[in-house]
Amino acid sequence: MPFGEPDGIADVAVQRPWRMRAVLSRTGEAAERFLTASSFDRGPWITVAFAAGIGVWFLLDNRWQWSVAMGAAVLAALAAIAVWRGRDDRAALRLAVTVLSVAFALGMATVWSKSELVGAAAIERPAVVSLDARILEREEQPAEERVRLTLAARDAEAGRPIKVRVNVPLEKDMGELEEGARVRLKAQLMPPPAPILPGAYDFARAAWFKGLAATGSVVGEIELVEQAGNRNSPIAQAQRFLSDHVRSRLDGAPGTIAAAFASGDRGGISAVDEDAMRDAGLTHLLSISGLHVSAVIAAAYFLASKLFALWPWFALRVRLPLVAAAVGAGAGIAYTLLTGAEVPTVRSCIGAMPVLGALALGREPLSMRMVAVAAAAVLFAWPEALVGPSFQMSFAAVIAIIALHNSEPIRAFLAPREESRARWLARRTVMLFVTGLVIEIALTPVVLFHFHRAGLYGAFANVLAIPLVTFVSMPLIAIALLLDMVGAGAPFWWLVGVSLDLLLDLAHFTASQPGAVKLVPHMGLGIIALFVAGGLWLALWRGKARLWGLIPAALAALVLAVSPVPDILVTRDGGNLGLVDERGNLFVLRGAPGTYARTNIVELAGSEIEPRNIRAYEGANCSADFCTIGRKTSEREWIVLVALNKQRIDERQLAAACELSDIVVADRWLPRSCMPRWLKVDRRYLERNGGVSIYLEDEQVRTVASSQGDHGWWQPAQD
């Protein structure tokens, strides 16, 4: 009846919006209570939101998506202000949504602006060109028997200024090839290469933000047109002089590592020593970063405070912590410039400045807010650093250290007490090991994501290596350099050599132990995002609520453990292929051990067994031109046809073979008559999509192109 009582169905329909409003209200009240009751530092979360905006820009594909994401963040901030204006019961929630949304949008705007300002389009195709160029940077790499020059030149075809990087063999090197010199040369150039496989290192992206349009090598002789004169960089000259001096005073591998510590020059370190340091979890010691800069600043601060304290007139009139902080800052900046002012070093120096400021003002020097300020400064200047391993590893380690040492159990464990010197030393030793273990746990997801391998005994090796480098090797190098000014440094260089021999022996011993290295296949973005979210929540929150961070971290570990291994990996040029059989054995098409393509195939397949040639696969039937491979899964048997060379094949025979195959792989352009049952990976396909990972069980194909979007550094071939 029109005026009768409504039935139950009508009542539900009418009440639904009000019920939804009630649910939203209760959710808002719960969020407000949580934010109000929680004891945490809000500052670091602003930097997290800023970094999230940068990361989402890399993740999204094109300008429309970037614009929509930024617009949505701004609208969220405006909505929070409009809806909760004047409501004291939503003050914390309004502030959180507004500030985090604005920080997110600002992060996207920062990296987008940086990409537009500095990004350099790559040359269209490989070519041999004649260059009249000015040297911008010289990097010596004696271990590779070459010198690497960064040149400012002009693209003869497009008529635009470009920056290129070329390798010069040592026999063609001249002392006059230094920053500011003008040269003429012929070089074989190629566009900066995209990742060779999904999940591999993206040099094209790094080159884009460095402004590099091409890389290559010198062909023929180099003509010096104009010497550097006053254009030469005095810092670069000092760096090379210091590196040469150290290597002249200390021979062999210890000399190359001492040169890296003193000047940041890693070009002389052999690949064998680099690999051993990496597999032992000690490679961070070779890169001038937080540990080295902190050691220099700490030494300068300590010496300045003690020496000025010996001058009563000065000590009574000037605040010594302020003077010591100024001396430490000067030492840190000088060391950063002397070691080449690379981004990791600059980042570490920036991170140390707030700590010195806190010491000068008598504030707590190690806090998450200080780390957040340093990270925000670095990301504002170099937003692209967020997706690189150096930034992630540095700040992950620092955040882990601060979170550990600020926790109540650790504070209680390290609190001063009446005890013997032996017990005090024992507690500090245990704390050093626990700190190393926590750092390894924090760094392992990052290392596995970028390098697909991790040294499992790094915590044990670092307990010995970090004190050895920080308190023995680096001070001895500094003393030896000072005494060299009066010709008395030889005994200390001998001690430096002994300490660095111990470091190398420790690295090689650790790396050679059974199970020292764990390889895993490529970790997806979702997995690493869960690890990061869980780790940040554990580190930045306080109280029992921080334990919620264990949930995403545990979920990420579980998903990683059950992640499938790709069955077939095809490199970006089709020149090499990896096949994983049912038992996890790896077979490759070609390539000697240690080659770039083969190394990436091994790492991305997560194989710890030495791969064999694909002809040794029990399901392979090979002729001079092709291999037909049978690969079984739980559902079916796949037939894979792989080209072994570029010899011309009768098209009808090829078409017939393709028709009998599920997948065809070739490093040539195959005719359209070649139509396999599922997938054709030929030169045409690879130029559009890049390297390929194939998962037969799920019938899934992952390509490099699928993670690139329309960013400027990705240049697929057009149909």
Q: Would you mind describing this structure in some detail?
A:
There is one protein chain. The chain has 719 residues and is α+β, with helices and mostly antiparallel strands. The protein folds into five domains: 20-118, no CATH class; 127-230, OB fold (Dihydrolipoamide Acetyltransferase, E2P) (Beta Barrel), CATH 2.40.50; 240-387 and 456-515, no CATH class; 525-562, no CATH class; 568-707, no CATH class. 53% of the residues lie in helices and 15% in strands. The protein is built from 23 helices and 18 strands. A six-stranded mixed sheet has the order 11-10-9-8-17-18, with helices on one face. Strands 1-2-3-5-4 form a five-stranded mixed β-barrel. Strands 12-13-14-15-16 form a five-stranded mixed sheet. Strand 13 and strand 14 form a beta hairpin. Helix 19 runs antiparallel to helix 20 (550-561). 38% of the residues are buried. Pfam families: Competence, DUF4131. InterPro entries: ComEC_N, Competence_DNA_uptake, DUF4131. It is found in: Cell membrane. This is Competence protein ComEC.
Task: Tell me briefly what this model is.
With 719 residues, the chain is of the alpha+beta class.
List the helices and strands and how they pair.
Layout: H1 8-37, H2 43-59, H3 63-83, H4 91-118, E1 127-141, E2 146-154, E3 161-169, E4 182-190, H5 203-210, E5 212-226, H6 234-249, H7 252-263, H8 271-279, H9 290-309, H10 312-317, H11 320-338, H12 343-361, H13 368-381, H14 389-406, H15 408-414, H16 421-451, E6 453-455, H17 458-484, H18 490-511, E7 517-519, H19 525-540, H20 550-561, E8 568-570, E9 577-580, E10 586-588, H21 596-605, E11 612-613, E12 620-622, E13 626-632, E14 637-643, H22 651-659, E15 663-665, E16 679-681, H23 683-689, E17 692-695, E18 700-703
Parallel strand pairs: 3-5, 10-11, 14-15, 15-16
Antiparallel strand pairs: 1-2, 1-4, 2-3, 4-5, 6-7, 8-9, 8-17, 9-10, 12-13, 13-14, 17-18
Helix pairs in contact: 2-4, 2-13, 3-4, 6-7, 7-18, 8-18, 9-11, 9-12, 11-12, 12-13, 14-16, 14-19, 16-17, 16-19, 17-18, 19-20
